[in-house]
Amino acid sequence: MRRVLWIVGILLALVGTGYFGLRADVATKFSYSKLEISNQSGSLASTTLFTPSADGDYVVMVSLEFIGPCCGGGDNTSEDTELTWSDNTNSYTHQVGNFAAHGAATNSGVTSMHVKSGQAVQLYTTEGGTTGTHYNVFVTVIGQ
Q1: Who wins on pLDDT, 13 or 35?
Q2: Nearest 5°: phi and psi at 19?
Q3: DSSP state of 44
Q4: Torsions phi, psi for 79 (to 5 deg)
Q5: Residue 108: beta bridge partners?
Q6: What's domain 30-143's superfamily in CATH?
Q7: 85: which of 59, 79, 120, 121 fits an S-S bond (Cβ 3.0–4.6 Å)?
Q8: Where are the domains of the chain?
Q9: From the CB of residue 1, how many other CB atoms can be counted at a distance below 10 Å?
Q10: Using alpha carbons only, what angle is made at residue 57 by residues 137 and 6, rounded to the nearest 5 degrees?
């Protein structure tokens, strides 16, 4: 996940310098935000990540880190992680990933979207398998 963020940062820096033939002032229109939800257990209720003030395009990166206790005796657990948002004409629910763990694990997913101003982008998880598993959620949003 950190490698992906590093690559995105390098690309944004190259765009900002005009390396790809784009004007530097275009790169300054991008926003960046992070959210961390620590020590979650069970399903995560719908949580607003952001609500844009203008229509825009965004990339949302989600990483789940299972921190236990998990999965003794062949049991496993999973978190079905989904994003919801609306564009100019439709509402969407997109599965970022069904993150499964058998013991300690980290999983991630990335999605891109066009979001209408004033429409919240939300994240939620639904737990399956062993209950009582704890996990952390890391979200990074890059957009205009």
Answers
A1: 35
A2: -55, -35
A3: P
A4: -125, 110
A5: 63
A6: icosahedral virus (2.60.120.660)
A7: 121
A8: 30-143
A9: 15
A10: 55
Determine the average pLDDT of the residues in 102-117. Answer: 80
Q: How much is the average pLDDT of 101-118? A: 79
Tokens of 29: 């229109």
The structure's pTM equals 0.71
Q: Give 34-49 pLDDT, tens digit per residue.
A: 888 888 877 889 999 9
Which pair of tokens denotes residue 137? 């959620």
End-to-end CA distance of the chain: 21
* CA distance linking residue 105 with residue 129, whole number of Å: 15
Strand intervals (E) in the chain: 31-41, 47-50, 56-68, 77-86, 91-101, 105-115, 121-129, 134-143
**Is the Cβ–Cβ distance between 43 and 137 less than 8 Å?**
no
Give the pLDDT confidence of 41-92 residue by residue, as tens digits.
Answer: 778 899 999 898 889 899 999 888 877 665 554 445 677 788 999 998 999 9
Torsions phi, psi of 35, nearest 5?
Answer: -140, 135
Cβ contacts of 23 within 8 Å, gap of 6 or more: none
What is the 8-class DSSP label of residue 4? H
